[in-house]
Amino acid sequence: MRLYVDGAKVATAPAGPALVSTGAFTVGRAKYDGRNVGFRPGVVDEVGVAGKALTDAEVAQLS
User: Fold this and answer.
1) For residue range 48-60, what is the model confidence (pLDDT) as tens digits?
2) Helix or strand or coil: residue 61?
């Protein structure tokens, strides 16, 4: 797993197990005991999602 900020790779970590999700993709909150909790209004901005793992070169083209 790689984390980019403004097109620059700032962190890497081993990917966790592949899990099948049945819910909607959400950024900026958590879910606990079936409820939406831990909202982070204004903390996350300009999120991008790709349908595949991008190479470093592909990420550089986005910024």
Assistant:
1) 888 898 999 999 8
2) helix
- pLDDT tens column, 20-63: 888 788 888 888 898 889 888 877 888 888 889 899 999 988 87
How many Cβ atoms from other residues are within 10 Å of residue 48's Cβ? Answer: 9
With vertex at residue 39, the alpha carbon angle to CA 4 and CA 23, rounded to the nearest 5 degrees, is 80
Rg (CA), the chain: 14
Question: How far apart, in whole angstroms, are the C-alpha atoms of residue 48 and residue 39?
Answer: 19
Closest-CA residue to 36 (of 17, 46, 23): 23
Question: Who's near 45: CB < 8 A, 6+ residues apart?
Answer: none
